[in-house]
């Protein structure tokens, strides 16, 4: 068989989840349609999908392209996970907070004992950018091996101009090396740092008037996010920061209504934010507003699991025709989980999302939550060839056999970037 | 350095969890003491531990033994997990039940739609013993790779003499090949099969008078277990079966008070069962009885997670000075999870067991739950060399970074039986 360097035909796919169909994020019953092929194939050229569908149809197209065949041995293929909400740059795990929380010590008391977000801030400020980049690089591999091909990454543990830029530079350094695609978000407004405790307005100004312009100048972020909640930033403060972001053409996200019904979702709708994240305390009125604004609700159930808190009302959001997405919220305090498959399991068992809804929420809808739905999140001709191979025969086994990693191959931009079983190097 | 074939010195251990100390299962505050060494080493000869403790002390003993050095690169070592409650021999995953349950269909209705335990029974009866053994063998590798070195395995999906023996023979076939150590349990009384629906007494007789004697004759089980609960077997029925087991010197376990407070724990105490498992509805009175009888309470939180049901009162059991153990309950209906690390995460976050209590409950106390506490479950001189290497620096990271497998090496009877990173073959 003639082989070109660039074209590849992936076969031996017991089930191919394509999510082909209508444009735009999936809502309501649309989230249940995976456009599944029982014996599938994918034809890839360079970084793009030429065709994806039934084996019979797709394999007929391959010879003309001189495609090299990769046999996946009867496994499930789905779009690479898009993890649209993470805080992956931190120096150390917060193991003491974890142990304290188990024994019943609350969030506030943990902070008073020197834990919480601000404890990560002190270590981050003392860590150099290359060190942060090296740690992030290692974590990036963990994400890739679990099937995440695109990752939103927030700053937010620096809380001064220099340290926030340092984190974003570490992210940019890792992002430039690939293969994981990284979406950068400035989260200068993650918490008010100790030194600004009694002059909050100055901190808001610092974020809006110094951090945001610097980030734009150096091209270090695509999104700005604010932790809009009780004890963090008020709706008014959040609005000031996010309006500044919008004015300089950055996109916005909001940590909304996680700890209390504090108005974050409503603000997200008013600003037409790309996503509103958490939403544990969202109301029907908020849902209607989010629907109108086209904001993607990003749910974070692994964090609820880890903290033992109330889950967001996923079923109500879906029945209100909202295009729900799911993310890990990977961070050292409230969700040290990088495996999107675990998020699927938690979403299915605890929030009663169906497997199909959860798969849609971690791929196509999640791509829209980072403004990349036109290029990522489904396996259709012309889209980027980002997909993963799971060591199961039926896609429902991914959340069913929980607590492990089923991913054995990750393909990013048409390149095999992780291949546990050496499937891509086998002679066919 | 002279190397003998048999002696090995494991070094490069950032933290060594030995659980050395008093004999017997650990109770109350005793569950918090891991006997941890910050820089540890283990000296192994053949299948036994010669010494385990601080690097300085243990490494001094090695030259005299001509021990070969294995450097674990600064990782955590703990005793191999003992998974004391599993149903690992089934033909197919129950994916349809999983999807139905998410949409709110109950246990009873699922059974009526052809799902539930009895659906596994029909497929098992049609599957040959070599096929069952092959599937179990594959699953065994999954357990080993996640750090389980000893596994209790129940029958219970045959529900006729031939099929129950077939399952136990498949278990015996796999067990004889190693390296996983398997503890066999006859669970003929897992459910009343359809054909005995209107003559339950005949089925009890079948289990007690035919299955148990056959199992003894062929040496196919060490334990007998009964699902003593509402809709399954009454206390009286369970007692008949278990007394027969005790009469022929088999040990007993009980599925107790899982679905309702139906008297299983009290029966376990009266019969001095080795373990009483589940205990979601256990009372203070039951706890006192279990304490007196020395029965190990085995909790199954991953099943509560998967089903979304009430967790057993772990904190109350521990405060009542009971030696709590934890198991996966791996099975196709109510807990498709083989990773004991995930059980640790669920126990810590949902039942508020401390990390130290959960580690004790999955190792030393779990060894007692299968009657092997004298030989397994802790790393002290003279015990079997069963231990695992986790790719973390601090043992608390094992439940903290949840939803993945941290195990990179499994050592069973002194042999390296899984070595993801090739650590044992590196030249030092």
Describe the structure.
The structure is a homodimer of 428-residue chains. The first copy, chain A, has 428 residues and is α/β, with parallel strands linked by helices. Chain A has 2 domains: 8-79 and 377-425, Urease, subunit C, domain 1 (Roll), CATH 2.30.40; 82-368, TIM Barrel (Alpha-Beta Barrel), CATH 3.20.20. Chain A contains 16 helices and 16 strands. The mean pLDDT of chain A is 96. The interface between A and B is large, with 37 and 37 residues.
Fold blueprint:
The structure is a homodimer of 428-residue chains.
Chain A: E1 7-17, E2 36-37, E3 40-45, E4 48-54, H1 55-65, E5 68-79, E6 81-83, H2 95-102, H3 107-112, H4 117-125, H5 129-145, E7 148-154, H6 161-177, E8 181-189, H7 200-217, E9 223-228, H8 235-247, E10 251-256, H9 264-270, E11 275-278, H10 284-293, E12 296-299, H11 301-307, H12 314-319, E13 325-326, H13 340-350, H14 355-362, H15 364-369, E14 387-390, H16 397-400, E15 407-412, E16 415-419
Parallel strand pairs in A: 1-5, 6-7, 7-8, 8-9, 9-10, 10-11, 11-12, 12-13
Antiparallel strand pairs in A: 1-2, 1-3, 3-4, 5-14, 14-15, 15-16
Helix pairs in contact in A: 5-6, 6-7, 7-8, 9-10, 13-14
């Amino acid at each position: 068989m003639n082989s070109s360097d660039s074209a590849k035909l992936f076969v031996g796919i017991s089930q191919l989840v394509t999510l082909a169909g209508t444009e735009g994020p999936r809502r309501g019953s649309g989230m249940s349609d995976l456009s599944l092929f029982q014996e599938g194939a994918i034809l890839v050229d360079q970084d793009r999908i030429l065709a994806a569908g039934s084996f019979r149809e797709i394999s007929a197209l391959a010879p003309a392209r001189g495609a090299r065949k990769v046999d996946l041995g009867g496994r499930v293929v789905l779009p690479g996970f898009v993890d649209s909400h993470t805080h992956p740059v931190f120096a150390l795990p917060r193991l003491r907070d974890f142990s304290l929380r188990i024994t019943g010590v609350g969030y506030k008391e943990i902070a008073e004992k020197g834990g919480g977000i601000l404890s990560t801030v002190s270590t981050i400020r003392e860590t150099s950018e290359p060190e942060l980049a090296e740690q992030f690089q290692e974590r990036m591999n963990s994400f890739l091996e679990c099937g995440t091909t695109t990752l939103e990454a927030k700053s937010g543990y620096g809380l001064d101009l220099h340290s926030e830029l340092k984190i974003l530079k570490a992210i940019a350094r890792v992002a430039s090396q690939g293969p994981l695609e990284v979406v950068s978000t400035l989260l200068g407004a993650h918490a008010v740092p100790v030194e600004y405790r009694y002059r909050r307005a100055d901190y808001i100004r610092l974020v809006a008037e110094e951090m945001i312009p610097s980030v734009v100048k150096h091209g270090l972020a695509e999104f700005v996010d604010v932790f809009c909640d009780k004890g963090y930033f008020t709706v008014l403060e959040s609005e000031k920061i996010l309006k500044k972001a919008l004015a300089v053409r950055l996109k916005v996200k909001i940590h909304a209504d996680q700890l209390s019904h504090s108005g974050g979702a409503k603000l997200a709708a008013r600003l037409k934010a790309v996503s509103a994240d958490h939403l544990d305390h969202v109301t029907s009125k908020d849902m209607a507003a989010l629907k109108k604004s086209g904001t993607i609700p990003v749910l974070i159930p692994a964090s609820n699991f880890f903290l033992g808190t109330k889950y967001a009302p996923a079923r109500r959001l879906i029945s209100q025709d909202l295009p729900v997405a799911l993310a890990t919220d990977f961070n050292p305090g409230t969700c040290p989980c990088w495996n999107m498959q675990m998020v699927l399991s938690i979403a299915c068992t605890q929030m009663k999302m169906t497997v199909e809804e959860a798969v849609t929420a971690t791929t196509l809808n999640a791509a829209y939550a980072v403004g990349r739905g036109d290029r990522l999140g489904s396996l259709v001709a012309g889209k980027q060839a980002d997909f993963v191979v799971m060591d199961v025969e039926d896609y429902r086994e991914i959340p069913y056999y929980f607590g492990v990693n089923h991913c054995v191959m990750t393909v990013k931009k048409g390149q095999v970037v992780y291949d546990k079983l050496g499937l891509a190097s086998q002679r066919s």
